[in-house]
Amino acid sequence: MARAVWTVGSLRDWLCMCPEGAAVVLEIGPRGSRDFADLRSLTFADVVSIHGYATPAVVLHEAAEPVPPLAPFWRYYGGKYRAAPRYPKPLHPTIIEPFAGAAGYSLRYPERNVVLVEKYPIIAEIWRYLIAVRPSEVLRIPEVEHVDELPSWVPEGARYLVGFCMNAACTAPCRKLSVGAKRLRAMGRHFEGWCAARRERTASQVDAIKHWQILEGDYTIAPDIEATWFIDPPYQVAGKYYIHADVDYPALAAWCRTRHGQTMVCENAGATWLPFQPFASCKSGPARRVSEEVLWTHVDHPAPQQVVLWESTG
Ligand SMILES: C[S@@+](CC[C@H](N)C(=O)[O-])C[C@H]1O[C@@H](n2cnc3c(N)ncnc32)[C@H](O)[C@@H]1O
Predict the structure, then answer these.
(1) Atom of ligand 1 nearest to the CA of 102
(2) Is 124 exposed, middle or buried (CB count within 10 Å of its CB: 0-12, 13-18, 19+)?
(3) Residue 125 is assigned to a structural domain of this protein
(4) CA 233 to chain centre
(5) CA 229 to CA 125: how far, in whole Å?
(6) How far apart are CA 167 and CA 197, in angstroms?
(7) Does ligand 1 come within 6 angstroms of the Cβ of 118?
(8) Is the CB of 119 under 6 A from ligand 1?
């Protein structure tokens, strides 16, 4: 088998370049490969139905093996982990979350090149810690019910993480295990607080995010590249509880419209700064309140890019 790398502008151009009768295996990325006796018989609809994606040129770029979703490292106020499977799947190898929080969307696709941007220094420090730490070090952090019980060697990022684990769905780390978490523990819940199960799960997951990046600062420092953009800012109406919640929405709207690739912008019903469409009713927080989510999406036409083919020589 010889490997051919061609540059194409669209699937149609690409199909026209295929030699008649060529037997090829299309490298379609993590979901496997498929033989086609004659590439020219392959239509746009085939590719879309094989992959369930709307932009096959992007799909052809995917190379990393998918790995199972990671569990949340902590439960954050307004976190999108539970709702993430309802949002469109990423079409690009790079996912950017410019309002990272606990990165609920990226955790579902950990094998991608994930770039997180976060203005709240405490959250940025947690991500720096998780990306850098070895599993063996996480396993050495003792179980505690108060952050002050942690030994002095435990780094700042781990202290903040333990603090977030002390209560569910907070906007800042807590110091001691909440009454609610104690009650849930008594009812047999294993992941409340910084306990053995949570510590082991954290340790088992950190190696899966070694290739992620965290940038601390305003969302505008995100690299201006083609990517899947999952944009989940503090909500215009309900977002005031975040430590950093002062968003210039008209400026953010203009910025969202100029992202390249696939853009999803999350908001709550009632937001007006983009032409949001009703999206889903989601339950969130420990009280499982229903929130009416809206969404604005945009997908660029696939730009000219490289497609890798394996061309049969036999
Ligand atoms: C709605 S939360 C994101 C939740 C996230 N999608 C998750 O699944 O956990 C919004 C986040 O944006 C951060 N933030 C607020 N203003 C920001 C800004 N100007 N630039 C970057 N991050 C900001 C907040 O600190 C908060 O962590």
Answers:
(1) 9
(2) buried
(3) no
(4) 14
(5) 22
(6) 16
(7) yes
(8) yes
Alpha helices in 17-120 (DSSP H): 44-51, 56-59
CA of 309 to the centre of ligand 1 (A): 39
Nearest alpha carbon, ligand 1 atom 7: 79
Atom of ligand 1 nearest to the CA of 230: 6
Q: How far is CA 192 from the centre of its chain?
A: 24
Domain presence at residue 218: no
Ligand 1: distance of its center to the CA of 223 in Å?
Answer: 17
What is the C-alpha to C-alpha distance for residues 163 and 148, in angstroms, rounded to an integer? 10
Whether ligand 1 lies within 6 angstroms of the CB of 273 is answered as no
- What does the alpha-carbon distance between residue 244 and residue 233 come to, in Å, rounded to a whole number? 10
Strands (E), the chain: 2-8, 24-26, 34-36, 94-97, 113-118, 213-216, 226-231, 260-268, 277-284, 289-299, 305-311
Establish whether residue 102 lines the binding site of ligand 1, counting it when its CB lies within 6 angstroms of any ligand atom: yes
DSSP code at position 1: -
Q: 3-state DSSP: the chain helix, strand, coil percent, rounded to 5?
A: 30, 25, 45
Domain that holds residue 11: 2-65+304-311
- Number of domains composing the chain: 1
Any atom of ligand 1 within 6 Å of the Cβ of 83: no
106 part of a folded domain: no
Does residue 61 belong to any structural domain of this protein?
A: yes
> Helix (H) and strand (E) counts for the chain?
9, 11
Residues 42-76: pLDDT tens digits? 444 444 333 333 333 333 333 345 679 999 999 99
Segments of the chain with pLDDT less than 70: 1-66, 285-287, 301-314
- How many Å apart are CA 65 and CA 29, to the nearest integer? 7
**Ligand 1 neighbour 104 (Cβ under 6 A):** yes
pTM above 0.70, yes or no: yes
